[in-house]
Amino acid sequence: MSEYYKVPRSANWNFIPGKKNNWKLSRSKIELFTECPRCFYLDNRLGVKRPPGFPFNLNSAVDTLLKKEFDIHRAKNQQHPLQEKYGIDAVPAQHEKLNEWRENFVGIQYEHPELGITITGAIDDLWVNSAGEYIVVDYKSTSKAEKIEALDQEWQNGYKRQMEVYQWLLRKNGYQVSNTGYFVYCNGDTDKEAFDGKLEFEITLIVHEGNDSWVEQRIKEAHECLKIDSLPNPGKACDYCAYRQGVKEVLSV
């Protein structure tokens, strides 16, 4: 058996109707439900999650270094040069729970009083403007030939939903949150003559005007999905479900 992929996982980490255990509805699980209710159900009700992808260690390294860089200016209560460059009315926010909110599997948490479930999400960064509103910031990194100036691809809509869930979570915790959020997008430069042991990035700040009005209903739909005792329909564009169906058809011949 693979050391990285165990099926099924411990039942105490699955959703059990009417019972409290270790299960939480994370931001990524909300996105999974949006993509494919069947994969979401298999993962969270039956404990059979999608096979994991390869870890993006370079992306994680960029995230870690960006956090350290913004933390330097956070400690001094001053603007980061990127904020100055784009004329942003904000500084890196100082908050006693920031490290907790950044931690995977912890993050910002909200106990839903009606549904009795905990919703969570781990942010990358938080800024605060002169009006005292918190600004959600997300780090992204890639390497493309073209300059990144907007999130205009359909697959990038998930990034926008990600930010809006964070905005919703902060508001549910009683904080004033700006609709305006930012993506700090780092694009690896491959036009250099040589590697020379370093990779340089062009950093772009992309604004997103969030609208979290969809989040509450999506959470309720995800919760209802897990309460039923039969598999829901797959997502229309789910490659995993298409693969499982293809295998099923081949083996039944």
TrEMBL record:
Residues 25-244 form the PD-(D/E)XK endonuclease-like domain. SUPFAM superfamilies: Restriction endonuclease-like. InterPro entries: PDDEXK-like_dom_sf, PDDEXK_AddAB-type, Restrct_endonuc-II-like. It holds the Pfam family PDDEXK_1. Gene3D superfamilies: 3.90.320.10. This is PD-(D/E)XK endonuclease-like domain-containing protein. It comes from Candidatus Magasanikbacteria bacterium GW2011_GWC2_37_14.
